[in-house]
Amino acid sequence: QVQLVDSGGGLVQPGGSLRLSCVGSRFAISDYTMCWYRQAPGRERELVACIVSIGGSTNYADSVKGRFTISRDNARNTVYLQMNSLTPEDTAVYYCYLPTRNYWGQGTQVTVSS
Q1: 101 contact partners, CB below 8 Å, separation of at least 6
Q2: Which terminus of the chain is less hemmed in, N or C, by CB atoms within 10 Å?
């Protein structure tokens, strides 16, 4: 069964950085578009970033452009989300997502607070 395991969240001060990881199993991430979503308390889940399988092009939500970077390491079958210049508005549970097969990671909590 396909599995996505998210990790890397935590508590960070405003202006700080975190790197999230999503390890896939029983499929090759290189063959699929992969995305990160987030859900803040009381809000709907929203798309953060995606990386396309062929060519590796990326797209981002306007709110994170220039601060977040999505990437992948095919050898490790892992997708990353590098998050810089974090603000309290980035506080949320972050989820890895495999759109074409509708699989979600379990989520990892990111809290930005002083």
Answers
A1: 2, 27, 32
A2: N
Token output for 43 = 């809000």
Is residue 31 packed enough to be buried (19+ CB in 10 Å), middle (13-18) or exposed (0-12)? exposed
Q: Is 72 helix (H, G, I), strand (E, B) or coil?
A: strand
Report yes or no: 35 and 45 within 8 Å, Cβ to Cβ. no
Q: How many CB atoms lie within 10 A of CB 111?
A: 15
Query: Encoding tokens for residue 49?
Result: 């970033």
State the 10-residue block means of pLDDT for the chain, 114 residues long. 96 98 96 97 97 92 98 97 98 97 97 97
